[in-house]
Amino acid sequence: MILAIVFLPLLAAAIAGLGNKALGVVPAKVVTTAALFASCALSWPIFIGFLNGSETAHVTPVLKWIVSGDMDAAWALRVDALTAVMLVVITSVSALVHLYSWGYMSEDPDQPRFFAYLSLFTFAMLMLVTADSLVQMFFGWEGVGLASYLLIGFWFRKPSAQAAAIKAFVVNRVGDLGFMLGIFGTFLVFGTVSIPAILAAAPNMAGSTIGFLWFRADTLTVLCLLLFVGAMGKSAQLGLHTWLPDAMEGPTPVSALIHAATMVTAGVFMVCRLSPMFELSPVALDVVRFVGAATCLFAATCGLVQTDIKRVIAYSTCSQLGYMFFAAGVGAYGAAMFHLFTHAFFKALLFLGAGSVIHAMHHEQDMRYYGALRREIPLTFWAMMMGTLAITGVGLPGLAGLPNMGFAGFHSKDAIIEAGWASGNPGVWFVGVLVALLTSFYSWRLMFLTFWGQPRWVNSEHIQHAAHDEHGHDHHESAHDAHHPDEAHGNPAQAEDGGHAPSTHEAGQQQLKVGTAGYHPHESPMPMLVPLAILSVGAVAAGFVFHGFFIEPEAGTRFWKGALAFREHLMHAMHEVPVPIKLSATIAMLLGLFTAWYAYIRQPQLPGIVAQQFRVLYRFLLHKWYFDELYHLLFVRPAFAIGRIFWHRGDEQTIDRFGPNGTAWLVQLGSRGAARLQSGYLYSYAFVMLIGLTVAVTWAIAG
Amino acid sequence: MDGFPILSVMLAVPALAAVACLFLSPSAARVTALAATLVDLALGILLWTGFDVGGAQWQFVEAGPRLGFFAWSLGIDGFALLLIMLSVFLMPICIGASWRAIEKRVPEYMAAFLLTEVLMIGTFAAQDLFLFYLFFEAGLIPMYLIIGIWGGVNRIYASYKFFLYTLLGSLLMLVAMLYMVQTTGSSYIPDLQAHDFPAHVQTWLWLAFFASFAVKMPMWPVHTWLPDAHVQAPTAGSVILAGVLLKLGGYGFLRFSLPMFPEASAQLTWLIFALSAIAVIYTSLVALVQADMKKLIAYSSVAHMAIVTIGLFAFNRQGIEGAMIMMLSHGLVSGALFLCVGVIYDRLHTREIARYGGLSINMPKYAVFFLFFTMASIGLPGTSGFVAEFLSLMGTYQVSTWTALLCTTGIILGAAYMLYLYARVAYGEIKSDEVRAMPDLSSRELWLLAPIAAVVLWMGVYPESFMAPMRNDVALLLQRIDRAAPASDSNPTPGNPAAAAASQREHGGEHGAAAAGHETTPGEAH
C-alpha cells in the first residue's frame, strides 16, 4: 500500500511529463490528479490506524541502492506515526493543490509540465518522509529541491523567476553542505546511515568528543549541528531564509504546496525524526531554539510591511517555521509536529485563498490596490477568514475546567508558547507571545487591506489592462507579467524610485485613488473553491480534533510510540502553567487584531504617518533587514570577481605564461640554431621527445 | 568462451576497421566505423556478462608472445572492466556525433577515432608495464591529430599545449618504469603491485608517476591544457577526451601509485588533498565566469576530477568506490554535456553562451536532456553524479574533515555555475531570429543522448550493477594499502553516557528543566 502511495505520483509525473504535448492537457491533469487522490485515499487509513493504535511501525524494502562496505543505503519505505502525519499532510494538500490548479492554471499552455512537476515533487517529498536511512532522506531532500527549482522557474521566460529558481537551489545547497557533512560524520561515528540504528546507538556516544576542522567538540553536538544546517536551509531559517520570499515567483498553487505546507517543513520533520539524537545534545537544542525564535521574530517583522500579498504569507510561513523549531528546541517535538500539521492546512488555505484573490484581481498581487473585495468574492473571503482565524490562534482558553476550544492555530501555537514557558525558557516564551501579536497584526492587516475599505483597483496596471481589454482573461499570467518585469520584484524598488517621502508605500496609501476602474472581480471556479472549502474545515477543526493525539501527555505512548522523543514531563508541565501565561497568547492576538483594525479601518492614514515617523526602521523592515543586499555584496559579487581573477591572473597570466608558453619559448630558443630544417611545432616536440628519451635511457642504464 | 581471446579481438576489430577506413569513401568509412564500434560494444557486453563477479582478480587473461621490449599480456580486473565498458559505450556515440559535423577527411577522422578506441582498451587491458606505457602514450597521438586537424580556429595552439603538457609528464614516468623493471626484473603489473619498494624509493617513483597522471587527470595547476583542448576539439573529440582520456590519470593512480607505492601515497596524501581542494574551489569559480560553454564544462571537469583524486587517496572503501563511480559518471555526464553543446553548435556555430537563450521554447526535448545532464553534473540524487560525489566525499571525510568541507563546497559552486549556464541557454525569451529558427533534436541526436541518460539514471538508482564488479578489487587494494592508511582527524572518543548525564545535571540552571525532562535517558541517571 505504501508502495502505491509513494510511487503513483512518480508514475503520474512520468506519464504527464514524458507525454507532455503529445498526451494533451486534460489527460495529464486527470492522470496526476487521480494519482494524488488515490495516494491521499490510501494515506488516511494509515494515519487513522496509528491514531487508534491498530497500525505499527514497519519498513517496506524496495531495492538495493548504494552499498559500499558498511555504508548500506537501501531504497526502503518506513512508516511510523511521524511518517503517517506527514503522509496525510503531503497527499491531502497535494491532491487539493492539483485540483485547485485545474482552475488556477487553466489558461496556461504548459499545463502538462506543471502537473508533472507537482506530482514529481509529491513523490520526492514522500520519499523524504518515508526514509529509513539518512541517504534516502537526502534523496528526497534534493528531489524536492529540484521540483522547487523547476516550479519556481516554471514561468522561465521571466528573468525574476529564473533568478529566484537559481537562488532557491543554491541557497538550499548551502544547507545541504551541512546535511552532507552531517551524514558523513554520522557514518564515521556510528558506521551506519540507517536512522533507527543511529538513534539506538546515539545514547552510547553521549559524552564523546570528535575532531572537526581545527577543534574538538562533543560528538553529538557536532553531528546535530551539521544536520541542522541542512534543516535551516530547507526550512528557510534565519540566514538561509532569503530564497523563500523570492520563491513566490512560482505559481501560487506551488507556493501553497511546496513553500508553505510541505517542503519547507522538511527541516522540522528532520529534527523530529532525529529527536532522540538532538535530545542528547543540549547545545544543539539551544541552537535550534535560538535560531527558531530568531527566525520567528525576524520574519514576522518583515511581514508587517510587505505589500505583496504572497510575500506577506511567505514571511508568515517563515515565521511559523520558526515557531516549530523553537518548539523542537525546548523539547516539545509533539507540539512542533502538531503545529506543522495544523499549519499545513491553514497556510495552504491562505495561499490558495490569496491565489483566488489574485485570480479575481487579474494577477494583481499588491494589496495596496485591493480593498472592498469582501462582497465581490465572498466565498474566497470566508475561506481566507477561516485561515486568518486559524493562524492568529483565535479560541477560548480552557479555564475553569472547560476544554480548549478554538481554530487550528490556537491549539498548536498556544501549545508551543506554553511549552516555552514550561520548559523554563521565559525568553523564548516572550518571543512567542510577541510574535503572536505581530502575526495577528500582519494577518489582519492583510485581511483589512484586501477585503475592507474602499476599492483602490484603479491604481493597478493589471486591472486597467483587464478593464480596457475585453479579452483580458485570456492573458496568460506569465505573458502578462512579462509586460511588467519589475512589478513582481520591485515594490521596494518603486519606493526608492519615488524618491520623496509621500510615495513611500504606506505613506502613499491615502493618496491612492479610490475606484474600481469599471472592473468586476469574479469569484473563482469550482475546482478552486472546493479545495478552499475542504482546507477551511481543516483550519477550523484540525486543532481541536487532533490535539489529544499530538501533545497530550499520554500521546507519547498512545500515538507516537517512539517515533520521536517525547517528554511526557514537559507535556504535563504545559498544563500547569499559570493562568496569565495561558492567556498571554490570546491577549497578544487580540492586541494585534485591535491594532490592525485601528490602523487600517479606523484611522487608515495612520500607517503612513508611522512609516514616515520611523522612516529608517520602516525601510529596514521593507528591505527585509538588508539580507539580500548584504549577501550580494559578501558572496555573489566576490565569487564572480575572484573567478575572473583566477581565470585571467591565475590560469592565463601565471600558469600558462610560465608553463606551456614559457616552455615553448625556451624550446624555440634552443632549437633555433639546430633546427634550420623548419620552424614547425612538430619538430620541436620531436626534439623534446628525443632529449627526454636520451636522458631517460642513460639514467636507466646508469642506475 | 574459454580460450577465446576476447580482449585481443576487441583490440583487433577497431584496428582493422581503422586501416580499412583509410581506403574507403567517406560514407563507407562512417558506416564501417559505426559497425566496428558497435561490434566492440557487443563484445564489451559479452565481456561484462562473462566477468565472474567475486571470482579471480584477473580474468580473461591472455599471455601472448614477448615482442622484444613488450610482452603481449592482457587481462582485466573490475576496474579495467568498467572503464573498458565506458570506452566501448561512448565510442559509437562519438561516431554518431561526427556523422554530419565532420565533412573534411572523413576516412582519416574515422580511422583516428578507431585507433583511439584501440589504444584506450589496450591501456585498460594491458598487464605488462611497457605495453601499458605504449598504449597510454600512443593514445595521445590520435587525439592530438583530431584536435590539430579537425579542431577549431586555434587548434594548433591547443593541440600543442595538450601534447607538451602530457608528454613531459610521460617522460618522467618512463624513467620510473625503467627503474622499476630493472630492480624487480619483471614488467608484469600484478607482480609489481605485490612488490614492496623501499619507502624512500617509493617517494621518487610516486612523484614520477604523479607527474604523468596529474597532467592527465588534470589536477590543478597543470589543468590549463584542458579548456583549450576542449574548446578547439570537435564535439566527438571533446566527448572522448572528457569521457575516456581524463580517466587515464585516475586509472593510473589506482593501478600504479596506490598499490605499488602505498607508503609514498600515504605520505603525499596531503599534496593530493591540497591540490584537489584548490582545484574544486578555483576551477568552480573560474567556471562561473566563463562565456564559452565548452570552457565552462571543461573547467567543471577539473573540479569533478578533483573529487576522484581525493576519493582515491582517502584509503578507504567509500572513497575508492566513489572515485571509480565518479570516473564513470563524469565520463557519461560530461560527455553528454559536450554532446549537448555540440547539438546547438551545429545549428548556430558558436559556443558563446550569450548568443543563446530561451531554447526551452523552441527546443523542448533538447531542454529536457540538457537539464537532466545538468542535474547529473550537479550530483542530484537519483543520478550517477550523486553516488559518485557522495561516496567519494564520505570517504574523504573519514580522513580529513578540512578537505571534505572544502571539496563539498563544490556542490554549492557546481549548482551555481551549471544552473547559471542552464538559465542563460534554456530560459528567458528567444533573443534572435537565428535562435528561433533552430530545430529541436533530430532523431539521430536523440539516439545519441537517450542511451547516456538511461545509463546515468541506472547508475544513480541501482549503482549495484556497477559497484559489484569492483567490490573484490577494492578489497584487495585496501588489503594492500591498509598498512599505510593515514590517520583520521575526526578520531571520536568512546562515549560515556553516565558521566555525560551527570554533568548535564550539574549544569543545572540553564538546562535544568531540559535535563529533568529527558525521557529518553532516564535509565542512566539511576
UniProtKB/TrEMBL annotation, chain A:
Region Disordered, annotated ranges: 467-510
TM segment ranges: 34-54, 75-102, 114-131, 138-157, 177-201, 213-233, 253-275, 287-306, 312-333, 340-361, 381-407, 428-452, 528-551, 579-600, 682-702
Molecular-function GO term, any one: NADH dehydrogenase (ubiquinone) activity
Main location: membrane
Start and end residues of each NADH-Ubiquinone oxidoreductase (complex I) chain 5 N-terminal domain: 65-115
InterPro entries: NADHpl_OxRdtase_5_subgr, ND/Mrp_TM, NU5C-like, Proton_antipo_N
Keyword Nucleotidyltransferase attributed: no
GO BP terms in the entry: ATP synthesis coupled electron transport; electron transport coupled proton transport
Location of this chain's protein in the cell: Endomembrane system; Membrane
Name of the protein described by the UniProt record: NADH:ubiquinone oxidoreductase subunit L
Taxonomic placement: Bacteria, Pseudomonadati, Pseudomonadota, Alphaproteobacteria, Sphingomonadales
Gene encoding the protein: nuoL
TrEMBL record, chain B:
Domain NADH:quinone oxidoreductase/Mrp antiporter transmembrane positions: 126-411
Region (Disordered): 485-526
Keywords: Membrane, Transmembrane, Transmembrane helix
InterPro entries: NADH_Q_OxRdtase_chainM/4 (IPR010227), NADH_UbQ_OxRdtase (IPR003918), ND/Mrp_TM (IPR001750)
Membrane topology: Multi-pass membrane protein
Main localization category: membrane
Stated name of the protein: NADH-quinone oxidoreductase subunit M
Organism listed in the record: Sphingomonas metalli
Lineage, opening ranks: Bacteria, Pseudomonadati, Pseudomonadota, Alphaproteobacteria, Sphingomonadales
